[in-house]
Amino acid sequence: MTDLLWPGDERAGGLLSDAAVLAAMVQVEQAWLDALVDAGLAPKALDLVGLVGPDDVSALAAGAEGGGNPVIGLVTLLRERAVPPGAVESDASWIHRGLTSQDVVDTGLMLVVRDALDRITADVRDQTASLIGLVEAHRSTTMVGRTLTQHAGPTTFGLVASGWLDGVVDAGEEIGRVRASLPVQVGGAVGTLAASTELARLAGLPDPESTAARVAQQTAGSLGLVAARPWHVRRGPVTRVGDALVAATDVWGQIATDVVTLSRPEIGELAEPAKEGRGGSSTMPQKQNPVLSVLLRRAALAAPPLASLLHTAASLAVDQRPDGSWHAEWDTLRTLARRAVVASSQAGELLAGLRVDAERMRANLDAARPGVLAERDGIRRLASGASATTTPADDHTADSYLGATDLLVDTALARARTFLEEPA
To answer: In this structure, are strands 355-356 and 142-147 parallel, antiparallel, or unpaired?
Structure first.
């Protein structure tokens, strides 16, 4: 996939592409059919994988308008192509039996979203390692702390970067929780498992309801998803994914905002990694634009409205199958997830190669004295007036007013190391 108006889209490769979604929906059909066969509810296993592929995307997309979704055309193609030599045509009629279109779309989207979350998880772990290195290298690199855009008090770049680190670990932990909870959707026409229960009853099985539940559980297990009650109009699984992705883009956006600010020529404390052909201007040859940070801010700005649409759709889900609000989710979720993958890659590159000018940070801090120490001096005067037992020697160095910086940095580093030690 490419997107001329979303620079960097190629970083996501084939993730969440039409071909990937189609392949995932075939996986769902295969897992369900296999579970029916294993339960004795369908007569013969069929190999569906490979029967449809990228070459079928255009026709399926064009035909999807007729039924409002691509599953109807997909099932027709699978049934046409699934009859091997020696089989009878009726064997193929068991494909999709007991499922509904929403089951296939919802579960297919969970599968392709999982692939995106796995990519982001790997990127976040790399970002965490990069940030640990930055924090350790610059825990004593003093700089001006700024609040409301103005000089405030002294801090260290190590502490600033440890704040970025906390945010990245927060995002990674939330993505991990959401990834582990992605559910299967196999409720059937109105979320009752009626068809599979009826098949079990007609087969003379002693507990048809439990058989239907086992078919659903086996389907979930073979797809690596969580077994769940039908959630056709309970859209929490979708909004949770959206919220986790937005939380991640929030973090990367905040880091990028710091970088674009501190890389302004008049500040000059940070610089993006240099790369041939990046950061130039079409008209001004002297410029070196912080392009990675600009694109990360773009992603952070664009993501929340997409998640908001997912929540709006969830609130309007009606009856036993949403009429339009469900349909609005598909491309919204895909777009949000794909853009988050792109942003995670860009954030990783930014942090791995970020250039820190410690001398410029120190020079800016020195130039901000004595105002940058005004809070410290006021506290000392107050303590002296209150007959303090000790009076610190008067000095003008910012290093004397860094508070619990070392403790805060150590806490962030310890948490990040624990995060990396846990299995992905």
So the answer is: unpaired
What burial class does residue 198 get, using C-beta atoms within 10 Å of its C-beta: 0-12 exposed, 13-18 middle, 19+ buried? middle
Alpha carbon distance 40, 379 (integer Å): 79
Q: Which residues are catalytic?
A: 281, 321
Domain layout of the chain by residue ranges: 12-97+193-229, 102-191+231-424
269: nearest Cα among 388, 134, 403: 134
Q: Do the beta carbons of residue 186 and residue 97 sit within 8 Å?
A: no
Which secondary structure element, helix H or strand E, spans residue 201, and what is its range?
Answer: helix 194-202
Q: pLDDT digit string (tens) for 26-44?
A: 999 999 999 999 999 999 8
- Which pTM was predicted? 0.94
What CATH number labels 102-191+231-424?
1.20.200.10
The answer to whether 178 and 117 are in contact (CB under 8 A) is yes
Beta strand ranges found along 237-299 (DSSP E): 270-271
Q: What radius of gyration, in Å, describes the C-alpha atoms of the chain?
A: 28
